[in-house]
Amino acid sequence: MSWKIIERKRTLLAGESGPGRGKSGGRLSCCLVYPNRYHSAMSNLGFQAVHAMVNAHPEVSCDRAYLPDRDELEELQRTRGTLLSLESQRPLSSFDLIAFSISFESDYLNLPAIFRLAGIEPYAAKRSRLQPLVLAGGAALFLNPEPVAPFLDLVCIGEAEPTLPPLLELLKQGAPSREELLLEAAQLPGIYVPSLYQPEYDGPCQLALRPAPGAPAKVRRVWDPDPESRPTVTEIHTDATEFSGMHLVEISRGCPRACRFCAAGFIYLPYRTRSPELVRSEVLKGVAQGRKVGLVAAAVSDYAGIGDLCCDIVAAGGKFSVSSFRIDHLDGRMIEALKASGQKSVALAPEGGSQRLRDLVKKGINEEQILAACDMLVSHDILNLKLYFIIGLPTETGEDLDELVALVKKIRERVLAAAKDNRRLGEIQLSVNPFIPKPFTPFQWCAMEPVKSLEKKWKFLQKELGRLANLKLQMESPREAFQQALLSRGDRRLAELLVAADRLGNWKEALREQEFDAEALVNREIALEELLPWDFIDGGDAGRLQREYRKALGE
Predict the structure, then answer these.
(1) Is the dihedral angle over the CA atoms 361, 365, 368, 372 positive or is it negative?
(2) What is the DSSP letter of 91?
């Protein structure tokens, strides 16, 4: 055991404050693991909420763990040590339950490394009964858990509020054998037990996922029917996060807009909002602590009474920021309050560069509304705009990119004119992201555009916009987007690839060693009648996705 590592963890703990810092004891010991660095883990509101929820159970104790940073990793390798939890500095292998909270598919890559550093066999079928049970949940698992299913004993398909309490009760009570325990768990709503399902394949296609006797044919995605039961807020404050000095408060869950490319509009259905009384109580707690309040939702401006709420924060002497705006639903009082909070930058998401593409994705906005929103913001002295666009959408052409360039130039002219009048600098940051077909969206059957084609489009945008003053361009790497698409729509055969990538330390070498045809999964359009790896999840109205797909792309 390295004292350097223990001292590092004690330093992190000393920098934390808040009511959600855990407890010791309990009949069931759990370690909640975020498969990325501490900074990312503690910036994730879902991770914090689940940690507090598990510790609220009277007979369960819950530590935290995360992917070691470079210094800790070097120390572990030098001392041949094992991965320790944050609170009690216990080896992960000593817990009854290891629970992964996974929001992003890219973090699937870190699971084999965490198992290796913890001295735990990655494949569930090969683990001894003396090793912990392994559970996973989070948005990435709502969509498609199959790429990491061979690593997991249990998966929560849906939100933690309804799935975790009955599962923790079952695990606390135990069963005569692990097999019986898992079969009992499979009867709980929203609990998927991968070992009870046998996949069948034919080339790039999955033919079936056959349940064992006693296992449900489909696993129903569950959602919290009572958003008032428990607020979702920052439980542990620390400066070592993306939101240092902020108190985050979730004001709604899901999105009523259902853009055809976006999973949030489908996997969090139905759309639910928290009451103004609950939200106001929580935001004023943050103000009382001297913290800036962060209002969290898929579309903050859709929240009823958002203007009143923002004005209440300012009237109480607080400041706030928002996670997102809807271009067609800006509240004047909210903008005034943002200005009073000293907000100098706002993010807007036109997504499609042309009206044809905005209609294709069902964005529900036009150029006039986009420009009007920009005019409203710059007229309130908010002169720094971040614009999100997607390239590589289905049917995109060169003409669509030309319209994107023209729209950005129009917005830039407005920002520069307002900045000149106010004698201040204004700036546009253009964030371009490749389209990734996501499960449980109408575009889940679409192909992702090849990397070389996306890189060519990026060069075009750089040529047209890259030299303009007061305009910065950034783009998610097409190769990383390709990797994310593979992990989003892949099946269980990806687990071997993930283990190989960890062993070799190189993703490309793993693809070559495993002779894995990634393009066959990513760059092809999937037939509507083909079985998808995530089709075992009952996510609601499956016919709706097909209808929206047909509406978008035509019969």
Answers:
(1) negative
(2) B
pTM of the model: 0.95
Strands (E), 372-443: 384-391, 427-434
Confidence (pLDDT) at 554: 82
Q: Please give the distance of CA 433 from its chain centroid, rounded to a whole number.
A: 15
pLDDT of the residue at 206: 87
- Using alpha carbons, select from 542, 423, 438, 416 the residue that is nearest to residue 486: 438
**Angstrom distance (rounded) from CA 143 to CA 533:** 10
Q: In whole angstroms, what is the distance from residue 476 CA to residue 3 CA?
A: 39
HSE (side-chain half, CA atoms, 13 Å) at 479 = 2
Q: What is d(CA 35, CA 104) in angstroms, rounded to the nearest whole number?
A: 10
Give the whole-angstrom CA distance, residue 466 versus residue 463. 6
Close Cβ partners of 555 (under 8 Å, ≥ 6 residues apart): none
Structural element, H or E, at residue 62: strand 60-66
Q: Beta strands 28-34 and 60-66: pairing type? A: parallel
Cβ 74 vs Cβ 20: under 8 Å: no
Distance in angstroms (rounded) separating the CA atoms of residues 192 and 172: 18
Within 8 A by CB and 6+ apart from 135, the residues are: 97, 98, 99, 100, 152, 153, 154, 155, 156, 167
Render pLDDT for 331-384 as a digit per residue (tens, 0 to 9): 888 899 988 988 888 999 999 999 999 999 999 999 999 999 999 998 888 889
Question: Are 350 and 387 in contact, with CB atoms under 8 Å apart?
Answer: yes
Using left for φ > 0, alpha for ψ between -120 and 50, and beta otherwise, residue 104 falls in beta
CB atoms within 10 A of CB 517: 11
92 has a pLDDT exceeding 70: yes
Instruction: State the pLDDT at residue 1.
Output: 56
How is 163-221 classified by DSSP, letter by letter?
Answer: HHHHHHHHHHH--SSHHHHHHHHTTSTTEE-GGGEEEEEETTEEEEEEEPTTS-SSEE-
β-pair type (205-211, 197-202): antiparallel
Helix/strand/coil percent split, the chain, to 5: 45, 20, 40
pLDDT tens digits, residue range 312-332?
999 999 999 987 778 888 888
